[in-house]
Structure formats: C-alpha cells, structure tokens
Specification:
The complex is a heterodimer of chains A (about 450) and B (about 210). With about 450 residues, chain A is mainly beta. Chain A contains 4 helices and 29 strands. In chain A, strands 2-1-3-4-5 form a 5-stranded mixed beta sheet, covered by helices on one side. A 4-stranded antiparallel beta sheet of chain A has the order 8-7-6-29, with no helix packed on it. In chain A, strands 9-10-11-12 form a 4-stranded antiparallel beta sheet, with no helix packed on it. Chain B has a domain of about 110 residues: 60s Ribosomal Protein L30, Chain: A. In chain B, about 35% of the residues are buried. The chains are: A mainly beta (about 450), B alpha+beta (about 210). The interface between A and B is large, with 124 and 94 residues. Strand 5 of chain A pairs antiparallel with strand 1 of chain B, so a sheet runs across the interface.
C-alpha cells in the first residue's frame, strides 16, 4: 500500500525516492513496459489501460468524458473508471504520483487543464507513461469556448497518435441521411454530425429524398443526390455558407456522385434511355465526359486517392461485380469473382484497400480487399448492410445496418481488422454515411 | 462500474441533445441550412514539467484549411415540353375509345422478377391496356417510375429502376405511343408501396408504375 503524500505538491525528493523504490519493486513483477504502445492492426490485442483524469477549468469534465468515449470506442484502450482513481489532486504542471496509478494498473495517464478568457478556451494536457515514469506528450490547444468538443477530439487524436503511431480520426465529421417516417413514406434529410454523434445539424428540409452524400477531401463541400417525383439531381452544398447548387447534367437522372480527390470534379452515373453509365464533370470548366459505354449498368464510381484508377459497380458480366478502370475510362478490369453480388466499392484513404458491399445467401456483408481484388475479408454481416465509408486514417469503416427484416437503418462502425463492431452514438435512424477528412 | 458502463451517461446525453435539436429544427426547417465551419485548432507544445525528465514533444505543424473551392454550375435546362403531345398518335386516327376509364383501371403497375427488368407476359398485357388508354387520350402524358425491392444496394437499385421504367416505355412506344408522351424516372428502393420485409412484399415493390402527368 502506498501512502499518499501530504506535502504534495510539490513532490519532495524523499517521497519521490520512496515511491520510485516501491515502483521499481513492482516493476519487476510487471511484464515489459519499456515501450508503451498499442497496435492498431491486430484484432483482439489487449486494450491498453488508460486513465483520463477530469481536466480542471471550464468544460473540464466534459472534455475528459469526450476523450474517454473516443478512446473507448476505438477498442484499443481500456478506459479506467474515474471512481477508481486514488490520486485526485492532479496538477497539469506537476508529475503525477505514478505509484497511485500503478495500483489501479493503468499504463497511461492524461492530466489536463483549461483556461478561458475573452471567449477563448486554452486547454493543455500531458500524457504520462505510468510505468516508465515519463511524459510522452505535452500539448496545448486553443479555440473558442463553444468549440470545446473539438479540443477534446484534438486531444484524443494526439493521444491516439502518440500511443499507436497512427494518425487519429476523432476530430472529423460524418455526413449522412437522417431518416424518419414510415417505410412506405420515408423522409430523408441531409445531416452532418461530429464522428461521435455530437452536434447534429440538418442541411435540407426533407422535401426531397437525399441519397448518398459525400464530403470533398477538403471537408468544406458535400455532394449528394436528391430524389423528387420527376427525377434525381446532383447537388453540391457548401457547409460554411449553406449555399446549394445543382450540378447541370443532361437528362433527369444523375446519381451516385463523389468528388474526385482534388475536389475539382464530380464522378457519378447517369441514365440515358435506360442505360446507366459513369460520367465525370469538371466543376471548374463544366466539361462532361462519359467514361463507360456499355449497355449494362455501370454505377457507384469512386476515384482512387492518387487519381489514376476508378472503381465502379457493373453487371456487364451477367452478375453485379466490382470493376476498375483508368481515369480516362480505359483499361477496364474486373476485380471480384467470388460468389455473391458485389457493389459500392470505395477506396481507402491510402488507396491500398477497397471496401465494398456483398450480397450472399440472403444476407448483406461489408468487406475489404486489396486494390487488385485479392485478400478479400468480410467485416460485418446482417439483413442489410451497405454503403461503407472510411475513417480518415483508414482504420475504421462506418456503414448503414438493418439488423433484421423491418428494422430501421442505423449507423455502425467496425475496425478494418474485423473487430470492434458497434453502433454509432447517433441514436436516430440514419443511412448513407460519408466520413470527412480530419478537420484543420 | 465497468469502463463501458461509464459511457452510458454520455450516450444518453447525446440522445437528449439530438432529440431537442430535432424539436427545434422541425420548427425552423428552412433556417438550418448551414453549419459551423471547421476553424483550425492549432496545437502548441506545453512546457515540460520542471521535476520530470521528459523531453518536450515537438509542436505539430498546423494544417491550413483549404480555401473553399467554388462550384461552377448552372441550373438544369427546363425539360422540353411536348408541344404537340399526342398529336402523332391521334393522327393515326380511327382508334376506338379506350375501354378503360383511367390508367389505374387499365392496370398502373407491372411487376418484375428479382434483379430482372424484362417484361413478363402479364406485364405486356397490362402495358397493352395502358397503351389503349393513352392512345384514346391524346392530350395526356405519362410518367413511368421504376421501383425496386430493398434487397439491393441503393445506387444499383436506382439504375435497375431506370431499366425497368425504360423497358415499360419501350414496350409502349413499340405499340405506337410517341416517346414524347412518356417520361421515365427511377425511385430505386426509396419508395416502396408494401412495407412487408418478406418475399411477398418485395415482389410488390419490384414494379414500373405508370402515372398520369399534368
């Protein structure tokens, strides 16, 4: 049992020496702790125990809660219950009593403090290696007071990055379709929320059925299609100004839009007399180019992050499969050959993987495969799952899921490892998620 | 209390927020067209703790927000009206009055097999009756909407619905109905009429629906 210091802060040399001695003894009983890190690639690794103390200052406990929720949902951390903490008198500028944290077997510890003045919130925090007794990270963020959740996400991303070596994904948004009404009279509104379900807002009023919204890589514009009685049109909305503009496309049916990686063009499919092909239209010059010329269905195009390949869904081979072609429409190659029907292919942020939807044996599945169609792996399966979208770091996939016949669609996430399947904190019916890049 | 239990207050808090938001937004539907821009949050290094022998973490360089790119676009050209709608059919002349009082009476929907857009014999019979009505009502135009069941992905079903609508249109034009009198659209799986999530309901929802325009 470690006695609590009465002369804290500051730590006296004697007590530090005492604690260190005890810790050294404990350390001998503890497996390797020299390098504190977490693997994001392996499924079912032991989650790292981490303690997030309530930050002092304005929004302190709310920020700590948001960080805890982020890290817990990642599946990589075992977030310690604050009720178990022995040390309660934390100061961001004083080293913690590591021994107290070892008692509850936490390996990493976060201590933070906020200050607010003139509407600006400054939050500083330190990440400590409890067994290594060293600071791993010390950062300060500032923003406007009402933006405190973004600081919590920035803190979460910094911790994730320091402990996993991977860029995080917490300070990001998700555009999606908020659904309401009966199944035969569905209202589908364009909505945006933080990746953790907070701050939802609606961008359309529900008079049109909004389908398949997606961010541009810069995160400032959303492209979507809107279905009305007489047709389906592609729209671009700027989320800063709220300004919406229809993209002029001949005919009354243009859908399945996505931005190209440079944000300068829209790639989509359009109907010409019952033949659906893939097109690309420059938003700068207005130039429209047809990329596929095939009597079969060609839809759901997505351009690779480096801009040189396009994956799309086609039934030209008799069944619905995923194909890839060059950016100019040449070099078409079929990627999927297995059982089932494949559709909605989407590139990972690094361009190394493709997520897709597969229908097989009366169920739907979300899977990933290599860019050449090899190494196919199924991550989730249900009555209906479709429309995968990648987290900005490529480690998590969000999708729409209906658990059984007649159920409302909701948003779910799964790790690319196939573990950590969970429902999004957004509690309402939702579909067609599109994940943004990390916010600036 | 386990760590996962500690999530509960947060999740229910989010529910309350989103519910209250929905209440507010349903009052002000039109006034909610923009959301806050993402302002950059720039990290700074926190000075090391005096008593700890830790190295200061490097400052992460901020990423400048990309400038909002403009969207060049123009309103869609209005759909061309059919100036002499029905005239060419009427000029064929000599057609008997339709025995059907309405398209609905002739049969307004034709149905399809799973993932198919070819017309069954029954579908052809219904479309033939529709053609008789359209021929007998020269001033009228119709919209054919293709529909799909829920057992396909959204975008593929929009394409499949377009094919179903076109298959119905092509059969009507093969019977002499002017293409100018027929518009097509696909609703994909977005507008089912039968909410049974079973093969019977799906069969009803796989259809091409002919609707009187104007």
């Amino acid at each position: 049992m470690i006695s609590h210091s009465l002369s804290y802060p500051p730590l006296t040399r004697a007590i530090r020496g005492l604690i260190t001695g005890i810790l050294l003894a404990l350390a001998c009983l503890t497996p390797a702790f020299a390098q504190l890190n977490v693997s994001v690639t392996e499924g079912h690794r032991r989650p790292m125990p981490i303690a997030i103390s309530d930050f002092s200052g304005p929004h302190g406990s709310s920020i700590a809660n948001a960080v805890r929720d982020n890290l817990a949902r990642s599946g990589l951390f075992q977030v310690q219950n604050p009720d178990s903490f022995l040390q309660r008198d934390m100061d961001v500028n004083v080293a913690p009593r590591f021994a107290d944290w070892r008692v509850i077997k936490t390996e990493a510890l976060v201590i933070g403090r906020g200050n607010s003045s003139a509407g600006r919130l400054r939050v500083e925090f330190r990440l400590w290696d409890v067994y290594g007794e060293s600071q791993m990270l010390g950062l300060e963020f500032s923003t406007t007071d009402e933006n405190w959740r973004r600081i919590a996400h920035k803190v979460s991303d910094a911790i994730y990055r320091r402990l996993t070596g991977e860029v995080g994904y917490f300070d990001s948004r998700v555009v999606f379709v908020a659904e309401s009404g009966s199944r035969t009279n569905r209202v589908k509104r364009l909505a945006v929320m933080d990746q953790d379900g907070a701050n939802p807002s609606y961008l359309t009023d529900g008079t049109e059925q909004v389908l398949n919204p997606r961010f541009n890589a810069q995160g400032q514009q959303i492209v979507y299609s809107a279905l009305t009685d007489r047709g389906i049109k592609i729209w671009v909305v700027d989320i800063e100004t709220g300004r919406k503009e229809a993209v002029a496309i001949p005919g009354n049916m243009a859908f399945a839009p996505r931005f190209t990686p440079d944000g300068q063009s829209i790639i989509f499919s359009a109907d010409r007399d019952g033949d659906v092909d893939v097109f690309i239209k420059s938003l700068r010059t207005g130039k429209l180019t047809q990329l596929t010329r095939n009597p079969a269905i060609d839809t759901s195009p997505d351009m690779s992050p480096n801009g040189d390949r396009i994956v799309f869904t086609s039934d030209r081979g008799g069944s619905t499969q995923i194909y890839a072609m060059n950016a100019d429409g040449s070099g078409v190659r079929r990627l999927t050959f297995g059982e089932g029907r494949y559709s909605t292919a989407v590139w990972s942020p690094k361009g190394d993987l493709i997520a897709f939807t597969r229908q097989l044996g009366g169920q739907f599945q979300i899977g990933v495969m290599a860019a050449d169609g090899s190494n196919l792996k199924i991550l989730a399966e249900a009555y209906l799952v479709e429309g995968p979208t990648w987290s900005p770091n490529g480690r998590v996939i969000m999708f729409q899921r209906e658990g059984g016949p007649g159920q409302s669609p909701s948003l779910w996430t799964v790790d690319v490892s196939g573990t950590n399947l969970r429902k999004s904190p957004w509690s309402g019916p939702g579909s067609d998620p599109g994940w943004s890049a990390i916010l600036p | 209390m386990t760590p996962s239990k500690s999530l509960i207050p947060q999740v229910s808090g989010a529910k309350i927020r989103s519910l209250s938001f929905m209440l507010v937004s349903s009052i002000a539907l039109v006034a909610c067209a923009s959301t806050k821009p993402a302002q950059p949050i720039v990290p700074e290094t926190v000075a090391p703790v005096a008593s700890a022998n830790a190295e200061a973490a490097p400052t992460v360089a901020p990423t400048a927000p990309a400038a909002a790119s403009g969207v060049a676009s123009a309103p869609l050209a209005p759909a061309a009206p059919a100036p002499d709608a029905g005239q060419s059919d009427a000029m064929r002349g000599g057609e008997a009055l339709s025995p059907f009082a309405s398209i609905a009476e002739a049969g307004e929907r034709v149905f399809f097999e799973t993932d198919r857009f070819d017309l069954t014999d029954e579908a052809r019979a219904i479309l033939t009756r529709q053609a008789a009505w359209i021929r007998a009502n020269p001033g009228k135009r119709v919209l054919i909407a293709g529909n799909c069941d829920e057992r396909g992905t959204r975008e593929y079903n929009l394409a499949l619905g377009a094919r179903r609508a076109s298959a119905a249109r092509d059969f009507l034009t093969s019977l002499g109905i002017s293409p100018d009198r027929i518009e097509t659209v696909s609703y994909g799986k977005e507008r089912p009429i039968d909410d049974r999530p079973n093969p019977e309901g799906w069969a009803v929802n796989r259809n091409a629906h002919t609707i009187l325009l104007d």
